[in-house]
Amino acid sequence: MGLIGSWHAALSVGVVPLLAILACDYMARRKETAVQTADA
Fold first, then answer.
1. CA nearest 22: which of 11, 36, 14?
2. How far from the centroid of its chain's Cα atoms is residue 2's Cα?
3. Can you tell me whether residue 40 is helix, strand or coil?
4. In 3D, which of 20, 15, 17, 39 has the Cα closest to residue 31?
């Protein structure tokens, strides 16, 4: 039980920053695309 709990905690700790990075990357790419479209 403890092992599963720590594994779940490690998974959460690993996934949350990953999602944050992906979200930031996605927003940056959308902004870049919007700028490129405006320039073109």
1. 14
2. 28
3. coil
4. 39
Where in the chain are the domains? 1-35
Secondary structure class of 20 (helix, strand, coil): helix
- 11: tokens are 């998974």
Residues 1-40 pLDDT 10s: 577 788 888 888 999 999 999 999 999 999 999 888 887 6
Entry pTM: 0.58
Which amino acid belongs to residue 23? A
- Distance of alpha carbon 28 from alpha carbon 40, whole angstroms: 18
